[in-house]
Amino acid sequence: MKVLFLAGVIGISATTAMAHSPLKATTPADGAKVEQTPEELSFDFKGKIRLTRVTVTVADDTDIDLDLSGHKKFATDYALPIEDMGSGVYEVEWRGLGTDGHAQKGTFNFTVE
């Protein structure tokens, strides 16, 4: 009986872990240094997610929410246009919803020299 219970717990834990869709890569990459502001930010997730908010902050005082109105469906890849806010460290904070209903969030940054 203990073996069956343990197998069930392991199976549920594995299913829950597999259901999440962590961020696999971004463009620009986390920590990258670029010469000019990119025209867009790209997100590559391991599984499908629906982005609900993406905020970009530069120099701790200028922040904008990127327009997600054209991105209402679940996807693994996103490309979002971004404004040129000059040189500095761009902090990107994202929030989303996985297909399993779990809220997800993360951050990355890059520097425009």
Low-confidence stretches: 4-19
Shape: elongated
| Multimeric organization | single chain
Give the number of DSSP strands.
7
Structural class: alpha+beta
Quote the distance from N terminus to C terminus. 62 Å
What's the average pLDDT?
86
Report the β-strand fraction as a percent range: over 45%
Helix content: 10-25%
Helical stretch tally = 1
Provide an overview of this structure:
The protein is α+β, with helices and mostly antiparallel strands and 113 residues long. The chain has one helix and seven strands. It has one helix at 2-19, and strands at 23-27, 32-34, 40-58, 62-65, 75-81, 88-98, 103-112. Strands 1, 2, 3, 4, 5, 6 and 7 form a seven-stranded mixed sheet that branches.
Short recap of the structure:
The chain is of the alpha+beta class. 16% of the residues lie in helices and 52% in strands.
